[in-house]
Specification:
Blueprint (H helix, E strand, L loop, with lengths): L6 E8 L5 E8 L2 H10 L3 E7 L14 H16 L4 H10 L4 H15 L4 H6 L7 H13 L2 H56 L7 H37 L1 H13 L3 H22 L4 H11 L3 H15 L4 H8 L4 H13 L2 H56 L1
Antiparallel strand pairs: 1-2, 1-3
Length: 404
């Protein structure tokens, strides 16, 4: 039997001091909402479902960066001494994303009814993964929730910033290729045929380059929809294989790591995420075995996910972490040496954080350099495509001019 999804209700009532209050709250029914409010000392006189706007352009999705901002704001509220439930209200009221506001109010209602913060988060696995919930649970158990929220916020901000950098590095070349294809298609389908009609009246042999471009134009006009359909089919098949085929994902991740320039960026971003996640979890008091399990899922690459799980198994049998990292032959010497120093000095989290900072800065520099390198390449590619087509079209005119 399917569980009923919570809905948003609007209420009006009076608090313990007799002061009139109103607001929004999520719940399964109006009676449940009244009971929740009564536990908070509010006697609700009017509870009704919140009406949907007539013209809603669609709700904004909750992005990982939104969760990072929410965590940072909660950490700030807690450090300022604001009670947890009141912190939820303050954060939710200041948001521009209604979906995120509703999510925070649902968590607030669960916490206000006696549920722990971590348990309330676990009810929304789409937005809060096991690592996030485990760290919050650790903060609640140790009585240092505000410190833990600050660490989680820093972790989320760093990882999301790194993901944005990688996305930028991968998206830029793809955008160039798409623009080049679109420009070339427009010229072949719309512009070249105009020249073809003019050349038909010349009655002279055309240069080979011009004939080649004219044939390309004929093919583009006759089969453009097949090309378009083929791109859609290939894109769909690719996405399905990536989601459902571990073997395909493994091959794709392996090829990505071997790509020139981009492969090094992806590799160093994996090392940065590995070090950042392990540093955060270990500093939170999470046992190393459990921490490595969380790290495996955060690498974003199935090759390194499997390698991390293998290292976890070796560490669970008594092998030192730095030894397992070295024997895997997949991690840089700097990470291995800093891990060894951290294990010997008892400051593993600090050493790993330094490694994470180093590789995060390295990725930033490489992405900036790649962007600078691609700019002249973009101009060159577009110039060759557009200029080549124009030269092919004007070659017959030049020949006629020279023969006069």
């Amino acid at each position: 039997m399917a569980t009923q999804a919570p809905q948003i209700f609007v209420y009006k009532g009076v608090d313990k001091k007799g002061k009139k209050v109103q607001g929004e709250v999520s719940g399964l029914s109006s009676s449940v909402v009244k009971a929740q409010l009564l536990k908070q000392g509010i006697r609700a006189n009017n509870v009704r479902k919140k009406p949907k706007p007539l013209f809603s352009g669609g709700r904004k999705k909750i992005k990982p960066l939104d969760i990072a901002v929410f965590t940072r704001q909660m950490a700030t509220m807690m450090k300022a001494g604001v009670p947890l439930v009141q912190s939820f209200d303050i954060v939710a009221d200041g948001l521009e994303n209604p979906a995120l506001g509703d999510l925070i109010r649902q968590i607030r209602d669960d916490v206000a009814s006696g549920t722990s913060f971590s348990s309330a988060l676990r009810r929304h696995p789409k937005y809060f993964d096991d690592l996030f919930c485990n760290l919050v649970d650790s903060g609640e158990s140790s009585g240092a929730l505000e410190t833990m929220l600050d660490r989680i916020a820093l972790y989320k901000e760093k990882t999301e910033r790194l993901k944005a950098k990688i996305k930028k590095a991968m998206t830029y070349p793809i955008a160039v290729i798409v623009v080049a294809i679109v420009v070339t298609a427009i010229l072949l389908i719309k512009v070249v045929p105009q020249f073809a009609e003019t050349f038909a009246s010349f009655g002279a042999d055309l240069p080979a380059f011009t004939l080649f471009v004219l044939h390309l134009s004929d093919l583009a006009r006759a089969y453009w929809y097949w090309f378009f359909l083929g791109i859609i089919v290939v894109g769909f098949v690719f996405s399905q294989l990536k989601q459902k085929s571990p073997g395909f994902r493994q091959g794709l991740d392996r090829v990505t790591l071997k790509l020139p320039i981009v492969g090094k960026i992806v590799y160093e971003s994996i090392i940065a995420r590995f070090a950042r996640t392990l540093s955060t979890t270990f500093a939170a008091g999470v046992p190393l075995i459990d921490a490595l399990t969380s790290v495996a899922g955060s690498t974003g690459n199935i090759i390194y996910e499997n390698a991390t799980l293998k290292i976890r198994d070796e560490v669970s049998t008594g092998t030192q972490l730095n030894v397992s990292l070295r024997t895997s032959r997949m991690f840089p010497t700097m990470l291995v040496q800093m891990t060894a120093i951290g294990e010997e000095s008892g400051a593993l989290d600090e050493m790993l954080e330094k490694v994470a900072i180093y590789y995060e800065e390295s990725v930033d520099d490489m992405v900036d350099n790649l962007t600078t390198l691609l700019e002249p390449m973009i101009m060159a590619i577009l110039g060759i495509l557009v200029g080549g087509l124009l030269v092919a079209m004007y070659l017959p005119i030049f020949q006629i001019g020279n023969s006069i």
